[in-house]
Amino acid sequence: MSEFYRPVSPGPALGEPFAPARPSDWPGTESATWEPLLRAFVTPGRVRLIVETVAGAGTVGRVRLLIDGDSLATELGAGEDVTREMVELDIEDEPTEIVLEGLRQSGSGTVRVAAFVLPLS
User: Which of 22, 34, 56, 91 is 20 to 30 A from 112, comparing alpha carbons?
Assistant: First the structure.
């Protein structure tokens, strides 16, 4: 199982299995341009990525998934309510980098994201 961590500031200790429970503690951005928020390296195999997004009051944003620097076609919306999406991936190369980027489209709040990577049999 892989861990996500914050790419700029110190993240959770290695081996810590949970993201912060409060969305206000999730990594976030107020940027109007794409900014990396979470990063993980995974080994080959099939994985399920669970992504949760939220934005501050009156704020709308987007979150996208990059696999080894290439963006997947689907972007996730971020609004005032927490939303959850699941994506299944077949990872072929080792190690493969998964990055979640976010941006704020409108409003003055923060766009936040949390994610988990689960191996599938």
Answer: 91
